[in-house]
Amino acid sequence: MPRYSSKRRVQHRAEQMFNLVADVERYPEFVPLCHALKIRQRTQNADRTETIVADMTVSFKLVKETFTSEVTLDRANGLINVRYLRGPFSNLDSAFRAYMRAELKRIQHEVGQTMVYVTHDQVEAMGMADRIAVMDRGKLQQYGSPDDLYERPANTFVARFIGSVLNNFIAARYADGALHIGDGSVELGELRGAFESRDSASGLTATIRPERVRVVAAGSPDATISAQVTLVEPLGPKDVVHLEHQGTDVRVVLPPDARPAIGSALGLIFDPAQVHVFDDDTGLAVR
After folding, report:
1. Going along 87-138, which residue ranges are E strands?
2. Do residues 273 and 196 share a domain?
3. In Å, how far from its chain's centre is CA 233?
4. What are phi and psi of 145, to 5 degrees?
5. pLDDT digits (tens, 9 = 90+) for 22-50
6. Overall domain count for the chain
7. Rounded to the nearest 5 degrees, what angle is found at the Cα of 150, between the Cα atoms of 172 and 87?
8. pTM over 0.85
9. What's the CA gap between 221 and 223, in Å, rounded?
10. CA-to-CA distance for 215 and 211, rounded, in angstroms?
11. Percent of the chain scored above 70 by pLDDT?
12. Is 146 inside a domain boundary?
């Protein structure tokens, strides 16, 4: 690729996007995106070099026709100040979608234009957003940074939705200052107060992300629980290992060189700091 100045790269990347989506018959979903990412030159003054900026101004008429009533419009000016994109990459193959996602994020970063991007793909949301609003049936479930949603899900819906590998959900109960998960337990320390003040009649569900579970030898005194390997999904740089513990499927992420044999037993360590607990009646996190 030729070497360009940073401002020229903005134009070059946008031109690449136009070239990629020129085939409207194959990618009709890119028609609004092509309109929204028109490039123009803007001369700052006669003594300065012309700079390339992304003109992401969309007319009221264009957006109303393209996105219907889902967009809140500035009717007084006929323009939208916050740009809206509704799943423009949803019908593409995974490799092309990943490329376009990265290109759009680079352009947005260099231009500095605020965007609202609607998607059902949590990978797109996590990879592109500064802030994410998770919705379920028209109701806001949680709003925050990608790290907030990943590290501190507000409820079971967010805990299930966020994460490239499905979260582990295991029945739990609180007793004697500890959270009992399966046939093991984790000490809660300073978090005991949140459990002691709640209604003990409702059940609990503990979650821990597969990539946060540590694996040790079966029978290790450090293990929270022991489980038997039932399935291994080789995914290239990682394996998703499925284990069974008291009838519950538990997943862990391991490197391929640590792949266990089907039927073998492993010890699993649950770090209390990585365990999230939800009330079965409300679905909300216990904190």
Report:
1. 115-118, 132-136
2. yes
3. 21
4. -75, 165
5. 444 444 444 444 444 443 333 333 333 33
6. 2
7. 125
8. no
9. 6
10. 10
11. 70
12. no
SS3 label, residue 188: coil
Q: Is the separation of the CB atoms in 39 and 54 below 8 Å?
A: yes
Structure tokens at 124: 């797109």
Cβ neighbours around 246 below 10 Å, total: 12
Give the strand pairing for 51-54 and 239-245.
Answer: unpaired
3-state secondary structure 217-275: ECCCCCCCEEEEEEEEEECCCCEEEEEEECCEEEEEEECHHHCCCCCCEEEEECCHHHC
Same domain assignment for residues 216 and 272: yes
The separation between the first and the last C-alpha atoms of the chain, rounded to the nearest angstrom, is: 51
Using an 8 Å Cβ cutoff, are 207 and 230 in contact? no
Q: Are residues 84 and 27 in the same domain?
A: yes
Q: At 171, which amino acid appears?
A: A
Q: By C-alpha distance, which of 262, 252, 170 is closest to 216? A: 252
Nearest in space to 197 (alpha carbons), one of 97, 82, 279: 279
Judgement on whether residues 125 and 205 belong to the same structural domain of the protein: no
